Amino acid sequence: MLKQLRRVFKHRWMDEASHVLSTDALQRLQARIAASEALHSGEIRICVEAGLPNGFLLQNATMPTLLRQRALDQFGRLGVWDTEANNGVLIYLCLAERAIELVADRGVDRRVSQQQWAALVQRLGAALRMGQFEAGLMQSVDELNTLLVQHFAVAPGQRNPNELPDTVVLA
């Protein structure tokens, strides 16, 4: 019980995610996602949370399990699973735990190796540890763009409908 209370305190102490990305940075990320999605049929979403909700923190599970559950919850809540080609990708950050979860829908996950996903997460983690949130997320969007263009490129002259918002979610 004491462990769970410590978790709750740690996550409530980290009160908001907006301090890591300025309004201008959020707009630049949104523009980068929109530009990327013009080249492929995939959808990219970013969710940055200060801390996990209390309902997650009070569960009797390990933190990696809780973080993965929360990322999957956000994947569903944001509709990333609901693309025509099942090729949505969510980058989920939990600031209180300094954690990154990448969730890819089945259409793209079966075409990209675990090593490629792990390398992307590792590079993003390195940037975040240096406090380079915008640069790290921009690089991740660019890397996702390369992967999605490789597997889901829009044909010349074809227009890709934007199935999901391009905004970064701060929770």
Helices and strands in order, then pairings?
Elements: H1 2-13, H2 23-37, E1 43-49, H3 54-57, H4 63-77, E2 88-94, E3 99-104, H5 106-109, H6 114-129, H7 133-152, E4 169-170
Parallel strand pairs: 1-2, 1-4
Antiparallel strand pairs: 2-3
Helix pairs in contact: 2-7, 6-7
Keywords:
alpha/beta; 171 residues; globular
State the gist of this model.
The chain is an alpha/beta fold and 171 residues long. The protein has helices at residues 2-13, 23-37, 54-57, 63-77, 106-109, 114-129, 133-152, and strands at 43-49, 88-94, 99-104, 169-170.
How does this model look, in words?
It is a single chain. The chain starts with a helix and ends with a strand. The longest helix has 20 residues, at 133-152. It has helices spanning 2-13, 23-37, 54-57, 63-77, 106-109, 114-129, 133-152, and strands at 43-49, 88-94, 99-104, 169-170. The chain contains 7 helices and 4 strands. The model has no long low-confidence stretch (mean pLDDT 91). Strand 2 (88-94) and strand 3 (99-104) form a beta hairpin. Strands 3-2-1-4 form a 4-stranded mixed beta sheet, with helices on both faces. Helix 2 packs parallel to helix 7 and helix 6 runs antiparallel to helix 7 (133-152). It has 171 residues and is of the alpha/beta class. The relative contact order is 0.22.
